[in-house]
Amino acid sequence: MTKTQGIVRTKFGQVSGLPLAGKYEGITEFRGIPYAAPPVGALRFRAPEDPAAWEGVKVCDAYAPMAMQDRQSGLGFEPYSSDFYWEGYPTCSEDCLYLNIATPADLAADASQAGKKYPVFIWFHGGGLADGYSFEPVFDPSELARKGVVVVSVGQRLNLFGYIALPQLTAEQDGKSGNYGLMDEVKALDWVCDNIAAFGGDPDNITVGGQSGGTAKSGALATSPKARGRVKRVINQSNLFWLRGYMDRAEMEEQSRTYLSSVGIDPDASLEELRQLDARAFLGPKGSIGRFRGAMVWDGDYVAHPEQTRNFEEYGAGLDVLAGNNLGEAALRGNGLFDPLPFTEVDEFYAFMKEYLGDLYEKYDFERAFPVDRENLDVRSRQLASYGMGGFGGLMVNRHFGAYRKAKGASGKTFIYLFSHLTPWRP
To answer: What is the mean pLDDT of the chain?
Structure first.
C-alpha cells in the first residue's frame, strides 16, 4: 500500500498526498486532484463546472490521464520524444481536468492554520495548444518545492477539445464559442485561490508560467480580465507571449468545420450528436489531429482584445515578467522550431542575411562583425535566431518588451534571460 501523508481539506472534500523520500524528503505531492467536473457527455465543448464533492479522503497518489491527443501528431517525433518522454506516454482521456501539487509545507497539522505561507507557482506544460501533459518528467516540481515554492501543474483540454468553435456552439453559448482550454485555466486559478492556503501556499502571491506552448497559456491567463489581478508574476520560457494576435471566432469556426469534414464528421451535426460521439472519433486516423491548429479566439470575455500588446497594457501592467529563451533552440530559416532549414554553405548564409538586413548589412559590415565557417555555420546562425532574428522572439525582442513596458508606464518589472549552457552532444 502506498504511504500517504497529510490530510488536507479542500472546498470539495479531503485529499491525502504522497510523501517523497531521499533528496526530496519533506516534500508532499498530491497527484490528480479534480479541479472541475469531467468535460464529457453534455459537458463536452462547454465551460468547465465544479467537480462533485466527495465523502471521506480521496487518496491522490497517482496522476490522472493526459488530455486527448495523438502522439503521432506531436509528442512522437525525434529528438523531441527521446529528450522529453523517455519514460513513454501516459494514457489519454477526455476526463483530464486535474491538477497536481508539490508542497514543502508541514502537513502533519492543518497547514492553513500553520501561519507560514509559501509562494505559489502555477505551471502550464508545453506542446503548443495541442500536445503534452502536466506531469512530464523533465519538469519535476520537486526541486522548486525543495526551495520553498508550492508548485501546481495543471492539465487542461487541448487541440479540438480545447479550442473548437462552431456556429452551433456559438448559438448555444451567447454568441461565443471556443477558448475551452483557456476557461479550464481560469477554473484552475479559481481552485488555487480557494484552496491553496490549506497546502501551505499564499493565494496572494501567485506566479504563472510555462515553457513553449505554456507561454501562450500562462500569458493569456495572466492578462485575461477573468484573472482579476490575482496573478502577480509571469515566467515565459522559450518565447515571450507578447507580439501575438488572437484569431477571430468566425475564422476558428471555419477551420473547425474543415477539420471535422476531413475526419468524416458532419460539421453541421447537432450538438447532441457531437456530444454523443466517441472522443477518439475527433482525433481521426493517426496524425490527423495535427491538422487542427487550435488557437485561442478573441471573445471580449476571456480575451479582451485581439492584440496581446493591448491585453498586456490593460491587464498586465502591474505584472512582473521573466521572459527568456535557450541559446540555439531556434533557427533562422524553416517552418518553426521543430522543422528548421539549416544552412550548408557560407555564401548561402551571407546571401540570406544580406536580404534580411537590407542596408544594415553593409552599414555595419556584417561579414566582419559576424564571421562564420562551414564547421560552425549552423551553431552561429542559431545564435542569431536566439538573439531575436528569425521571428521566434529572442533576446532583443524580450529587451524591447521591457523598454516598451517602461515607456508605457507599467509598474511591473521585466527580467530577461538567455540560457546559454551547452549540454554535451554529438553531431
So the answer is: 91
Round the CA-based radius of gyration of the chain to a whole number and report it.
23
**Mean pLDDT to the nearest integer, 399-424:** 90
Q: How many helices and strands, by DSSP H and E, does the chain display?
A: 14, 11
Percent of the chain topping pLDDT 70: 92
Provide mean pLDDT across the span 166-191. Answer: 97
Residues 224-234: what's their mean pLDDT? 95
Amino acid letter at 251?
Answer: E
Residue type, 67: A
Task: Please choose, from the candidates 393, 387, 382, the residue with its C-alpha nearest in 3D space to the C-alpha of residue 332.
Answer: 382
CA distances (Å), origin 198, targets 6, 8, 121, 142:
11, 6, 15, 19
DSSP assignment of 222-260 equals HTSGGGTT---EEEEESS-S-S-BPBPHHHHHHHHHHHH
Pick the closest to residue 163 from 195, 128, 192 (CA basis).
Answer: 128
- What is each CA distance from 287 to 74, 160, 290, 368, in whole angstroms? 8, 14, 6, 46
For residue 108, give the nearest of 4, 193, 24 by alpha carbon.
Answer: 4
What is the arithmetic mean of pLDDT over 260-280?
Answer: 97
Cα separation, 372 vs 10, in Å, equals 59
324-341 pLDDT tens trace: 988 888 888 886 566 778
Q: What angle do CA 359, 362, 367 make, to 5 degrees?
A: 130
**pLDDT per residue as tens digits for the range 279-321:** 999 999 988 998 998 899 999 999 999 999 999 999 999 999 9
Q: Using DSSP, state whether 374 is helix, strand or coil.
A: coil
Closest CA to 156 of 177, 175, 128: 128
Whether residue 3 has pLDDT greater than 50? no
Residue ranges with strand state E in 74-193: 98-103, 118-124, 150-154
d(CA 278, CA 118): 42
Distances (CA, A) of 240 to 43, 200, 209, 237: 33, 30, 11, 7
Nearest partner of 152 among 100, 209, 96, 213, judged by Cα? 100
Q: How far apart are the first and last CA of the chain?
A: 46
User: C-alpha grid cell for residue 265?
Assistant: 464528421
Q: How do residues 174-186 score in pLDDT, each as one tens digit? A: 999 999 999 999 9
Pairwise CA distance, residues 402 & 385, whole Å: 19
